[in-house]
Amino acid sequence: MNAHARKVVKEEPLIIMQLPSDANSTGRDFKGMELGFLKEVLDSGTLNCVRGTQVKTFEKDFAARYGVASCRAVTSGTAAIHCAVAAMNLEPGDEVIGTTITDMGAITPILYQQGIPVFADVDPVSLNVTPETVAERIGPRTRAIIATHLFGNPCDIEGIQAVGAKHGIPVIEDCAQSYLATQNGKLTGTIGAIGCFSMQQGKHMTTGEGGMVITNDPAHARHMRLFSDKAWGYEDPKPDHYFLALNYRMTEMQGAVARGQLAKLDSVVERRQMMAAYLDYLLGETPGVTLPKALPGSTHTYWKYALTVDPEAVTGGVDALAKQLKDSGVFCVPRYVVKPAFECEVLAKRNTYGSSSCPYTCTKNAGGAPPSYDRADYPGTILGLDRVLVLPWNEHYQPEHVEFIAGRIKSAVAALRQPQFAGV
Description:
- By secondary structure, the chain is an alpha/beta fold.
- The chain has a domain at 33-261: Aspartate Aminotransferase, domain 2 (3-Layer(aba) Sandwich).
- It has 12 helices and 14 strands.
- The strands form 3 sheets. Strands 1-9-8-5-4-2-3 form a 7-stranded mixed β-sheet, with helices on both faces. A 4-stranded antiparallel β-sheet has the order 10-12-14-13.
- Helix 1 packs antiparallel against helix 8, helix 5 (131-137) packs parallel to helix 6 and helix 8 (252-283) packs across helix 12.
- The two termini are 44 Å apart.
């Protein structure tokens, strides 16, 4: 062998593990009861919930699981929020307080009901609104508060409920991501006036699309049931279309799948929590990374697993860490929603009804101070979005999947560690 020949060092190939995904059957389970209930629907030939039994049975069972008087199943999580906002019976220009970090489906129903979204800032680690930030936004036109439990981690909903009660303002809980999460022994969705849920593809239970609203208030229950069905009072002595409303009825096929999914929900949540606890253990005191943590007395049910990344400890911060993870086979989403909800064009440019900018320009709101959509007023939101890294999560994760994810995170953090943290 030539003495001057260069010695070739063969690099070990990077082993990529295929992680279960909630986008397909690797992370979703529809075997068992769902198929049996679907067969019942198709054999009956009745696919509409007005005359069918599946949706009605699901509503009864979901209400029982949550210990509430009423459940109405609808077509999506957005429809659920819309029904809840409609039950507030807003006047044009009334304000509804929500969060800066959420799906637009939790905001546009306010505009459809001629209300104006007002945003509370969030805690920069949990990315949830707080009683203090909500209280700061209450004004003379505030008619409702929508409190979102982001990623399955409950906000201080009891504190927010107390703030609302002090001002006579009802609280709507957005539980799209927080199935079976609790605060001081109470299920999220049962603490406020109304609880709203989503059964979109990636949620703890799914029908592809779908949603529910739950409440113990009979007036809210009736209004939401009517609103989801063109305000036609089917069981009334002299039914009529009582007010402006839409058709958000769930189909019997969705109801059949929902029944099967509900039967698995407790197990789904338990498995998500178990594997999240294992990842907590494996990551331990990883420098520059803050792990998700529930408030005292609360339980996290992990729709996603959201980390906070400190750019002072990790060179390049959340973007650099996300790139390293993606390159090594761990999909993740840096910054979650990229920008606060109020910077989306529908709100920033008031792109609502034609060129009218209603409800911002409605008569009742004329002369009042416009809501603040200036990012300078939301330091927690900006800091939180700059540092959050969201990992997918589902109930099919096994210990080997979690070990793979933890190993990749630790390796990436070590490679990006700032010099002053090199010995940590």
